[in-house]
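Case study B.
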Amino acid sequence: VDAVEIIRAKRDAAPLTPEQIDYFIAGVTSGAIPDYQTTALLMAIRLRGMDARETAALTDAMVRSGVRVDLSSFRSIPVDKHSTGGVGDKTSLILAPLAAACGAIVPMMSGRALGHTGGTLDKLEAIPGFRTRLTLDEFRASLETIGCALIGQTDEVAPADRTLYALRDVTATIDSIPLISASIMSKKIAEGIGALVLDVKCGSGAFMKDEPSARRLAESLVGIGRHAGLRMHACITRMDAPLGRMVGNSHEVVESIETLKGSGPRDLEDLSVLLAARMLELSEAGAPARADQSASRAAYEARVRDALRSGSALEKLRQIIERQGGDPRVVDDYALLPQAPHRAEIRAARAGYVTRLDAGSIGEATMALGAGRATADDPIDPAVGCRIVAGIGDRVREGDPVLEVSYSDAARFERARGVYEAAIAIGDAAPPPVSLVIEEIGDR
Amino acid sequence: VDAVEIIRAKRDAAPLTPEQIDYFIAGVTSGAIPDYQTTALLMAIRLRGMDARETAALTDAMVRSGVRVDLSSFRSIPVDKHSTGGVGDKTSLILAPLAAACGAIVPMMSGRALGHTGGTLDKLEAIPGFRTRLTLDEFRASLETIGCALIGQTDEVAPADRTLYALRDVTATIDSIPLISASIMSKKIAEGIGALVLDVKCGSGAFMKDEPSARRLAESLVGIGRHAGLRMHACITRMDAPLGRMVGNSHEVVESIETLKGSGPRDLEDLSVLLAARMLELSEAGAPARADQSASRAAYEARVRDALRSGSALEKLRQIIERQGGDPRVVDDYALLPQAPHRAEIRAARAGYVTRLDAGSIGEATMALGAGRATADDPIDPAVGCRIVAGIGDRVREGDPVLEVSYSDAARFERARGVYEAAIAIGDAAPPPVSLVIEEIGDR
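Model:
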């Protein structure tokens, strides 16, 4: 085996053997294969593709580049959720305590914001004191004590993925379904889960703009997970408008807490309940036969709604914050979260009904305020963000506020203002309601 | 302009603008663009291609990455020949003195052997003392004094090409017509010529295996040269069998001298005369109108044959050797060249006519003896090589010698023997003679 041979094979559209993939990932991890060979192969993969077998082998090699956490001693199957990223998507902050409050073991390793989509770690770090860098021992101890831990990828987990991701970022090789799939799934498999619920976002604010590509990604991820022995369930959900009403890091913490208090926006609550119910379903062994599926699903959803209503999920969030060094009083006093000094409203240019709040544009504008990062080293401003005052279907008069923007820097706001304005469309009639969930692809 | 944007554009099969290409080559030259971005772009170019305009802009940027020698003070147009490389192709050693003896100015910058094709520099360095590393001042002084200089690429000439070539070699991106074309032409344009004759080899011993790809390469090279204001002429010639009867560095020096003495093999002499005549034709301004072309060509060929017969071309070689520090007595005493200690014969397995002497296999076998290099750092053994005893169409009895192999290392010879044997085919009838020249593509 030899790096040039491997590059040549993929260049010529041949499938790589597991041995070739192992050799390559081992070389990337040890540094024996120089970056300039790695990026040539990444571009060949981007342009020639990889089949399901290659993608599974790539994922497996990336898992083996580091530690795979052993969580097999838990009674139920440890379960996580992964979202491919959207604007206003704060479901992890809601789901993790919700599923854990229902008894699930939720080892959640998350990422940071990149581009216009938010990152769970950045949101959590808006909470004063919250530590996302736990050791693997602390991670396990949290799971044993409170059933949940929300952390960043540790250095021991899938180190090959970090190297590959950094190189993909600077060589226009991010948007490759096999590379995305292996990157996501290697980290998830390595964190020790036995089941995974995927939320594959589809639309202007998502990485996948159309349903066929979202479906391909979902199927690729599900296939890899099954190949690794995980129980898998994927929901393909719309991301044409922001999820919920708040975008920006401390804004989204507030909305997550509100949702756990039972006062969240309907779309966010419903999706959180659905995903948490699917997590419970996957994590509990001896599930009912297919014939009983819909009754069984209704029962899981009812359990999750009970955890919301009873306050036990909110209490679980408090425990998580406390355990990870954060100030749990934020649950009751949002003023403890970072606050931006300035506010401005984006107003309706005409009377009518809000027909569009483009997620991609709102994500970009909010990133421009400082909520996200264009490159991995950019600092985040946790305080900035926007709140949707008039949602899709709401009636507005000319001059009514549609968005309320919180900002720190006037020049940045001026650059973002036009992007916010362009995100809004107002028509003569309310658009028909659409279901957030497009499709589910699952094990049962 | 930004490197990732450029990579993304080519990844998506967009043509690059001259500004993008300039930015990239300037960054490669200065080191501002890291190798891992360069190789991602090279793979994208390998898989997506470049049109004629992009290839010309790439060549131009590579020329401007270093010095372009100014030879405009010479009375005639400085002219060079470039061969895309074949087995036994020693025409440069013959042509350069031949054309210079006819009054042409021949500034010839050549390369080294890589793979199974020979390199002019390695052949010249088989001559004791011969220096191929001249400064640009020495280069110019040689041209002024004797009309010819045979040197390697200096550090000042097309430095971007050296970086790109080294990276292409380790990333399976060598075999791209635009990249090959820009690499060849940037060095040739930078050496200060105003006219170039190309010998594009086609067949098992060449880089281009079939006529359509040889034609594409020839047209790409001619197009770039014209775009840069050069007079261009290309010959597409067969490389299914070795050119001449000798393969290996000192072997080829001997055969070149024999040819300049008028005792060379017919195919080699004819091709050398043809290429030298085309060089003269391009280098002399005010050439006749197209109607007189064939008479004019016959006249140029006659002048070249005169230079061979009169001994003036041989005398010119002696001057070149002397001027570049070599021992000119080799012209009369081949024993001064490196001699291999062992000889062996590869014999006819049956009686009949030699129908095939596969150039690719003979090249590989001779490389395996030490005549060539698999990687750029391999040492060369100038003494080893092989001589064709029975050429294509010759009648042999079973056990007659077909090849005479000179080697230094018995183990290497044992590995090469089977490859030599497999190169030979013997049939019941002599094959029909084929013309070496397949096609000419020229300015006039």
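The mean pLDDT of chain A is 94. The remaining cases will be described in the next quarterly update.
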